[in-house]
Amino acid sequence: MTPEQWKKLDALFHEALELEKEARAAHLEKVCGDDGQLREEAERLIAAHEDKDRLRRFEQEARAAGMLNHPNVLTIYDIGAHDNAPYIVSEFLTGETLRERLREGPAPLRRAVDYAMQISRGLQAAHEKGIVHRDLKPENLFVTRDGRVKILDFGLAKLKSSPAGPPPEIETNASTKTLSTFPGAVMGTVGYMAPEQVRAEEVDHRADIFAFGVILYEMLYGRRAFQGESAVEVMNAILKEEPPEISELEREVPPALVRLVRHCLEKSREERFQSMVDVAFYLDALPVAADRPVAADRKIAAAQPARPRSRWRNWMAVAVVGIILIAAGAMWRIQRSDELWENPLANAHIERVTDFPGTETDANISSDGKFIVFLSDRDGAFDALVNQVGSGASVNLTKGRFPELAHEEVRTVGFSDEGAVSA
After folding, report:
1. Are 292 and 257 in contact (CB under 8 A)?
2. What does each C-alpha distance from 78 to 43, 81, 87, 205 come to in angstroms?
3. Dist CA 8 CA 85 (whole Å)
4. Of 34, 135, 146, 377, which residue is the catalytic one?
5. Domain 96-284 in CATH 3.30.230.10
6. Residue ranges covered by each domain of the chain
7. Which of 57, 145, 233, 399, CA to CA, is 20 to 30 A from 351?
8. Catalytic: 291?
9. Tens-place pLDDT, residues 110-138
10. In this structure, are residues 339 and 375 in contact, taking their beta carbons and an 8 Å threshold?
C-alpha cells in the first residue's frame, strides 16, 4: 500500500468511526465506489477496532509471522497502534496472489512443482517453530515478480510448543489458549479445511499438509478439489468424497506427483505425510524435466496426416548396418586383447544403504545414481521405500496400503524412463 493509499484509508477509517454504526455502510459505499480493496481494508480496520476477537487474530498474525525468518514467509518488522487503529509493518511485495495467477488456468508443471517446493519449505519453517497456519489457501500465497512464493496471513495460526521450545518473548500457553479450536468452532476456509477442521476437532500441522495438497491439486488441474453448491456440500465432500483423479484429466502428470497429492489428501491424518520434511523430500525427488503436452494436444497431433516414411526407413536400414559393423569390430578387438578389459569395480567404494531387521529386496537405482528404491518388511507388511544416497534416511512410500507387494510373483519396484518411482 502506497503512502497516498494509506492516508485515504486512514481518513476514511476515522470518518466512519464518527458515524453511527447504521450509517457506516452507506458512507463506505459513497466514498469507496468501485474500489473494493479500499472498502475491504476500511471494514477490516473498523471490525478490528470494535471486535476484540478480530484484534487478537490481528495480533496473533503479527506474533506468529514475527517468529519466522524465512524467504518463503512474509517478513514482519513491527506491530503497533496509531489513533486506536492497529497496524503491521511488513516487507513490500510486488506481484500477485496465487489465486489471481490461477485465474489464468492451471500452472505449468515445472512451475507448479517449484511453487509447491517453496510453500513446503515455508510451512516446514513454521511447523518447526510450533506454528500451524490453519488457513492456507491461494489467497494467502503471494507470488512475487521474480517467482518467489510468500506465505501470508497467520491470523488463524495456532502456536504450539516446538521441540526446541518457544522464544522467550512468546507466551505459548496464552497464545494457544487464545486461538485453540474449541468444540463446535469451525476455523478455516471452506474448500481448504482438513476433515478434522470440518469436524471442529483439535488440529495440528497435518491440517496444513491437507490444505497444501488441495492447493497443489488446484495448481495442476485448474479447479478446486472439493466443490459443491453450498458450504455444507463442500464440507460434506471433504469428509466423504475423493477429488477426481488427476490421471483421468486432460493433462499428463507424472504418477509420482499424483501419488504425492493423493497422500496429502488422505481423510485420516494418520495416513497422510506426517511432516512437511517428508513432503519436501518427495518433491525434491520428482524428476520434472519439462512440461508434457496435454491429451487434447496429442489428439490433434494424431489427427494430422501422416508423413511418408519410405525415406526414413531407408536411412534406418543404413544406420542399423553401420551399428552392426561397428559392434563386430569392437567384439573382434576385445577377443584379440585381454588388456582392453578393466574391472569397473576395481576402485569402487562400497557402502551399506540399509540395515533394517527383516528382508530388503528388489532394489533399483535411479539413472542419475542419486536414489535407491527397494522393498522392505521392516514395518510388518512389504512396503516400497526410497533412499537418497548418502542421506541415511529412507521414506516409506506405500505405508502398508498395497498388500500385493508381499507376493513374489507380482511385486516389482523401480524407476520409470522419466525417473519416477513405479511399483
Report:
1. no
2. 22, 10, 8, 26
3. 14
4. 135
5. no
6. 3-90, 96-284, 360-422
7. 399
8. no
9. 999 999 999 999 999 888 888 888 889 99
10. no
